[in-house]
Amino acid sequence: MAALDFYFSTLSPFTYLAGTRPWQIAARHGASLTCKPLDILALFARTGGTPPGERHPARQQYRLIELERQAAKLGLPINLKPAHWPANAAPSAYAIIAAQQAGGGDIGRLVHSILRACWAEDRDIADGAVIRACLDGAGFDPALADSGLLAGAESYAQNLEDAVKAGVFGAPFWVMADGARFWGQDRLEDLETHLAGQAA
């Protein structure tokens, strides 16, 4: 079975645009997919990236143009200036980590619902009530928002170290067990082609 690590931030609009496609692709090719949410600002600092708010105005403007274009292409609603962005991403990341460890729900739906809460619904993903609602909606125990804090914090820090070691520098980012890397929701087709070649 092909193994796939999925590095992302719950603050990332491009991860939101990936939707649930990563899980659909993995399922089609019998691949395992492990969610590895991380601190994107710390990743930028470690790998030479620049946070969106510190980029040249031309880059900031084009980022918004690209987000709007891609959202329209994918048929996804998007608010380019969400009310609660950037929020503290750690609590939502901890919940995803805890849910993945607990099992029993739809992890792809959980991840997308958290991102959608920020980028389409103007909800605060640092709010425990929002996180619990997302957990419940994806079939997980809402109490994971609280019970998974310690383990989530440890894994969240480790995910950053794993990302840097694997050559990850942005989000969303997929790393295969064979070392193949794919950056950006617009590279999911390439990821699927690679998986198809492995399964052939």
Low-confidence stretches: none
Any idea of the CATH class?
Answer: Alpha Beta
Total number of domains: 1
The ordered H/E elements are EHHEHHHHHHHEEH
CATH architecture: 3-Layer(aba) Sandwich
Helix count from the secondary structure assignment: 10
What portion of residues is helical? 55-70%
Shape summary: globular
CATH topology tier name: Glutaredoxin
The overall average pLDDT, rounded, is 95
Q: Distance between termini?
A: 12 Å
Radius of gyration: 16 Å
Count the strands? 4
The helix/strand class is: alpha+beta
Largest sheet: 4 strands, mixed
CATH superfamily name?
Answer: Glutaredoxin
Description of the molecule:
With 200 residues, the chain is an alpha+beta fold. The chain has one domain (3-199): Glutaredoxin (3-Layer(aba) Sandwich). It contains ten helices and four strands; from the N terminus they run E-H-H-E-H-H-H-H-H-H-H-E-E-H. A hairpin with a 4-residue loop joins strand 3 (173-176) and strand 4. Helix 2 (21-28) packs parallel to helix 10 and helix 5 (90-102) runs antiparallel to helix 6. It is globular and about 45 Å long. It starts with a strand and ends with a helix. The mean pLDDT is 95.
What's this, in brief?
The chain is of the alpha+beta class. 55% of the residues lie in helices and 10% in strands. The protein contains ten helices and four strands, in the order E-H-H-E-H-H-H-H-H-H-H-E-E-H.
